[in-house]
Amino acid sequence: MTVILNSAAPKQHNEFPQNTQVAVDIVLDTAYQGIDEAAWKKLFAKARKANVTGFIADMFAGKRLNASENRPVLHSALRNLSKTSVEIDGQDVMPAITEVWRRIEALCNKWIGITDVIHIGIGGSDFGPRLAIEALAHVPSIDSRLMRMHFLANIDTAELARILARAQPHSTRVIIVSKSFTTLETTMNAKAVVNWLKENNCSKAQISRALFAVTTNVAAAKEFGVEENNIYPFWDWVGGRYSVWSAVGLPIALQYGFDTFMDFLAGAHAMDLHFKNTELENNLPVLMALTLLHQQEQHDIKSFAVIPYADALDWFPRWLQQLDMESNGKGVNRDGQPVKFSSPVVFGSSGSNAQHSYFQLLHQGPEVIPIDFIAVRKAMSELPEAQAHHRILLSNCLAQAQALAHGKEADKPNDCYPGSRPSNLLLLPELNAFYLGALLALYEHRTTVLGVLWNINSFDQPGVELGKVLAKPIEKALASHANNIEASTEIDAVTAARINFLNT
Ligand code: F6P
């Protein structure tokens, strides 16, 4: 072996975090980051200088940290099972949150005879529940009702057509999920599904029974035709990508039961308490953020990979892409100055499949790409083969991390592995609702800490607007069917030519 990143034997928990730390039973092992004691000290000094501790306290205290939108950042209140009061401008938000929990439980109890649920939402109104439904499907003790949960996000009608071909209209429920209730993909898909109900002879009364909404814009949901009793509110102090803990997570409760939804919240709440109450040196989200900062400073890294060795977490990288890149993919900091660092490109997929795809580049490509490996101690099924398969899954995960860290010398350049490729290992005891909640909250907080270290507001997303604005005149031009569109202030020459080509 040529390069040894960090050969120190793992230390005891709660010692200097050179290697392993545990929170909510989740083990973080940073041994392959190659960060020695002196480097950790410098990193903690940076965290102190950036006032990470003060930011965490302010966030839980409901300060308006989303400065550009003048909003608090309180998704943690949505899972505050301790029910301690959380105030915004002197008003406790917990009664409104517990009322939504009560309504979700009541809905679960009367959710009988439903064959299909169509959950319509996109981005933060889609990834979280979609990931949770997939991630928990393997848990044998979960009472999964015999109900199909369909997720409809894309404006492309391929997804819509696939769902409508399978759903039974008279026993379908439709949940329209949109923080703003103005997102075009969501409102157009919702209209299409309502039309499908009508075409299938559902009466007015049946349609109004079938429609549900989850939104901060209750007026718009009513205007759309959703009955007030079927609207589950959430609030503008919850970012869309942080909203799965609100009624946006309704599919989890409906599919797997209210108790499972509560377990999911409980795991996240346990991670919140860890994040809020633990000093920087033992704080998992802080440690994870600092490992990334270290690699940025050492290697100017531009990409970051997350590889869950759990097929059930295949949606996790896509969820994390929005969380990280929409939160921290910014060119200017909180003071309007150009940033030195912001979010790397996040990519990944479940292992071991990923090994047969882009791991070649991770091992021998010219760029250093830090990786978070996520592994689960307990096998994912009770099949006779489960233990043998799981051992191979875990051994592949450990082997990849080791190979990336140490590399290999060889006579031919082609056979050399440079090594010194850093990675974290996160080890979950098992993949159930509780640990899934804890895992997602861990990454949410990691994203927040990175935002603080980079002095970025992680809670707005102004960069998504321009494309939406430009799409409007382009759509109008496409609808005109004209093939002589000329360049204008709204449509440039390249795009005009493309429209003309499409319209020909
Ligand atoms: O366009 C990006 C975005 O605003 C995301 O931030 C959000 O998660 C998604 O669109 C959906 O928004 P909404 O929940 O308001 O429909």
UniProtKB/TrEMBL annotation:
It comes from the Bacteria. HAMAP family: G6P_isomerase. CDD domains: SIS_PGI_1, SIS_PGI_2. InterPro entries: G6P_Isomerase, G6P_Isomerase_C, Phosphoglucose_isomerase_CS, SIS_dom_sf, SIS_PGI_1, SIS_PGI_2. GO terms for molecular function: carbohydrate derivative binding; glucose-6-phosphate isomerase activity; monosaccharide binding. Belongs to the GPI family. Catalyzes the reversible isomerization of glucose-6-phosphate to fructose-6-phosphate. It is found in: Cytoplasm. Pathway: Carbohydrate degradation; glycolysis; D-glyceraldehyde 3-phosphate and glycerone phosphate from D-glucose: step 2/4; Carbohydrate biosynthesis; gluconeogenesis. It catalyses: alpha-D-glucose 6-phosphate = beta-D-fructose 6-phosphate. The lineage of its organism: Bacteria, Pseudomonadati, Pseudomonadota, Betaproteobacteria, Burkholderiales. Keywords: Cytoplasm, Gluconeogenesis, Glycolysis, Isomerase. GO terms for biological process: gluconeogenesis; glucose 6-phosphate metabolic process; glycolytic process. The active site is at residues 326, 356, 468. The gene is pgi. SUPFAM superfamilies: SIS domain. GO terms for cellular component: cytosol. This is Glucose-6-phosphate isomerase. It is an enzyme of class 5 (isomerase). It comes from Polynucleobacter meluiroseus. Coiled coil: none annotated.
